[in-house]
Design brief:
The complex is a heterodimer. Chain A is mainly alpha-helical. Chain A has nine helices and no strands. The chains are: A mainly alpha, B mainly alpha.
Chain lengths: 186, 103
Amino acid sequence: MDIYLLFRKKGLGEILVNMNAPFYIAAMVAIVSTFMVVTRSNAVHALLYLIVSLLAVALIFFLLGASFVAALEVIIYAGAIMVLFVFVIMMLNLGPQTAAQERQWLTPGTWVGPAVLMVALAAEFIYVLSSTHGKLLEIRVIGPKQVGIALFGPYVLGVELASMLLLAGMVGAYHLGRRDKTNGVR
Amino acid sequence: MISHIPLEHGLFAAGALFLLGLIGVMVRRNILFILLSIEVMLNASGLAFVVAGSRWGQPDGQIMFIFILTMAAAEVSVGLALVIRLYHIYKSLDADSASSMRG
C-alpha cells in the first residue's frame, strides 16, 4: 500500500506503533545516553545521563510487557540508587579541578586499546545474533501478580538469600562509613 | 499493545549497553565512574533477562531482574562507602592510588 494512503487511513501514531518505533527510539536513547555516561568528565553530568538511560530502559521494559519491573526500574534504580550516587558526589564536593584531571586521564592512548577490543567483541556478537533467526517476541503482559506468585513460590529461597545479602550490604556500609574515635577516619 | 519486536533486537540493545559499560570500566580511572559503569553493565544484563523472559512469556526473567536489582543495591552501598573511605585516605578518586598493599 502506498505510504501516503496508509498515512491518510491510519495516522502517524498508529504507523509508528506498528513499526515498533517506540522500542527502537527508546533503545537508541539508552545507547546514546550510556555513551555519554562513559565519556563525560563531570560526574554530575554523567549521573544525569545515566538516569536518562535508566528511564529509557524502563520504557523498553514497559513495551516488552514487564510493567512491574519497569516501575521497579524507575523507583529503585533511577530513584534510590542514583540518589545514593548524588549524595556521595555532593559529600565529596568535587570541584572543577577534578573534571580537568578527568579530561587529562582520558587521553586517546588510554581508551583506544579497550575500545578496539570491545568493537571486536561487538562485531562477533552481532554476527552470532544475526546468523540465527529467532521468532518475533509475542508481547504478553506479565503483571505483578504472576511475578509475585513465582517470586514467593519456586524462588522463595532466592528471596531469603537476597534479604541476607541486603543485610550484609547494610552492615558493610555502616562499618566502612563509621568514624574511628581515636584519629577521625581510620 | 500490538508490537512484535524481534528477539535479536532486544538482545542487541542489551549487548550494546553491556559493552559500553565494559568500555567504561576499562577506560576510566576515576573510581566513581567505574562504579557507574558497573551499574550500566548490571542493568544491561537485567535487560537481557527481561527480553528472554518475554520471549517465553514467563515471569522468571523479571524475577532475575529483581535479584539483580537487589544485588546492585547492596553492591552500590558497599562500593560508595569504600569510595568515601578511599577519598578520605588518599584525597583522590584515582583507582591507581590504592593499587599497593601494606605489608
